[in-house]
Amino acid sequence: MLIYIDGEFLPQAEAKVSVFDHGLLYGDGVFEGIRSYNGRVFKLDEHLERLYDSAKSIMLQIPTPIETMKETVLETLRRNNLHEAYIRLIVTRGVGDLGLDPDKCPNPTIIIIADKITLYPQNFYEEGLDIVTTSIRRNYPEAINPRIKSLNYLNNILAKIEGKQAGAVEVLMLNADGYVVECSGDNIFWVKNGVLVTPPVHIGILEGVTRNSVIELARDAGMQVEERIFTRHALYIADECFLTGTAAEVIPVVNIDRRVIGDGQPGAVTQKLMAAFRQLANSTGTPIYV
Ligand code: PXG
Questions:
Q1: Residue 150 DSSP label
Q2: Does the pLDDT of residue 186 top 90, yes or no?
Q3: Which residues are catalytic?
Q4: Which of 98, 100, 154, 234 is deepest in the core (most CB within 10 A)?
Q5: Phi first, then psi: what are they for 287, rounded to 5°?
Q6: What is the pTM of this model?
Q7: Of the candidates 256, 255, 252, which has an alpha carbon nearest to the alpha carbon of residue 277?
Q8: For 241-282, what is each residue's pLDDT tens digit?
Q9: Ligand 1 center from residue 279 Cα (angstroms)
Q10: Ligand 1 atom 8: the closest Cα is on which residue?
Q11: Phi then psi for 9, rounded to 5 degrees?
C-alpha cells in the first residue's frame, strides 16, 4: 500500500508522523472518510468542502488548494490500483513543540490513506441493528462543535465503548439537553406515517454527506422530510428507523433501548432508500481512471 504523506507516496512501513505532531499530541486536526464505488469517488467535492470548512473553523489553513487536494486523492487511488476503496484524508496542525500553541506549527501534515473497503455483514442490512443509548452526551457545540470533523474523536469513542459493553454495534447519543442527535459514527433518521425525520444540524451533529444524499433522494421521491428536534420517545414509537454513514450507507435499526421499532423488521421506506442510495453511489462520482 502506498500512502500519501506531505508530498510523497510512501510504503506503509515508511509512512510515519513525528511524535511532535499536534494531531497526535492533541487531536488537533481534521479528517474525512470517503468511499469509491466502481472506480468513482462518491461525493468527493462534498467531502473536500467539509474538510476545508472543518479546517477553517479551527483556524487551520490548509496550504494545498482544494483542486490540488482532489487530484492527490485520485492519484493515491491510482497508485494503489483501487476501484472500491475507503479513503482517509487527514490534515493535522503539524509538528510543533510540546505546548498547545498552534502558532508553533507552521506546516500542516497532510495524509491520504486509500485502502480496500471493509463492508458491514450482510445480515445487518437484512435484519437491522439493535442499538442502545449511551450515557456519554455528544459534545456541546460551544465546546467542540460536532460539525467539525476533528481528529479529537474521544467523545464518540467513549460512546462506542459503552455501546460495545452493551453488545450493540452502534450507540445512540443525546445532546446536553437530552435531544437525540446522532450515533457514534452515523446520522439517524426515523419514519412515522410516511414522514421522514432527522435532527437539524444546529443541535450538534456532524452534517453527514450520506445524510444529505438521503434527504435529497427522499425529497426527489416525493417524501415529506423534516429536520427537527425530538426526544427518544419519538424513536420508540416510530414506524421505522435507520442510520446513515459513509461506511454503513443506509442501515436499518429495528430495536432501540429494548423497544421493538415498528414490526421489528427493516421498513418499506428504509428499504426503498437503501436501494436508492446504492443506485446513486454506484452510478455517480468523480472518475478515478480517465
Ligand atoms: N456522525 C458522525 C459523528 C460521524 O463520525 C457520520 C455521522 C456520517 O457522516 P458521513 O459524511 O460519512 O455520511 C460520521 C462519519 C467508523 C467511522 O469507523 C465513522 C465515521 C468517521 C470515522 C470512523 O465507524 N463516520
A1: B
A2: yes
A3: 149
A4: 234
A5: -65, 135
A6: 0.98
A7: 252
A8: 999 999 999 999 999 999 999 999 999 999 999 999 999 999
A9: 21
A10: 245
A11: -105, 115
* C-alpha distance across the termini of the chain, in Å: 22
Lining ligand 1 with CB less than 6 A are 33, 156, 182, 185-187, 206, 208-211, 244-247
Using CB atoms within 10 A of its CB, is residue 7 exposed (0-12), middle (13-18) or buried (19+)? exposed
User: Domains plus CATH for the chain?
Assistant: 2-115 (3.30.470.10), 122-283 (3.20.10.10)
Residues 213-238, mean pLDDT to the nearest whole number: 98
Name the closest-CA residue to atom 24, ligand 1.
185
The phi, psi pair for 20, rounded to 5°, reads -95, 5
Tell me how far the alpha carbon of residue 48 lies from the centroid of ligand 1, in angstroms: 15
Cell of 265: 423488521
Sign of CA dihedral 206, 201, 128, 245: negative
Q: How far is the CA of 185 from the centre of ligand 1 (A)?
A: 4
What single-letter DSSP state applies at residue 203? G
- Ligand 1 centroid from CA 186, angstroms: 5
Is the Cβ–Cβ distance between 52 and 172 less than 8 Å? no
Please, which pLDDT band fits residue 290 given cuts at 50, 70 and 90? confident
Point out which residues pair with 70 in neighbouring strands: none
Nearest CA to ligand 1 atom 20: 185
pLDDT score of 81 more than 90: yes
Which mutation among 187, 201, 207, 244 tests ligand 1's pocket best, with the greatest number of atoms within 8 A of CB? Answer: 187
Q: What would the pLDDT profile of 19-32 be if each residue is shown by its tens digit?
A: 999 999 999 999 99
Find, among 146, 172, 166, the residue nearest to 233 by Cα: 172
Closest by Cα among 156, 163, 204, 158 to 180: 204
Count, in order, helices (H) and strands (E) of the chain.
8, 16
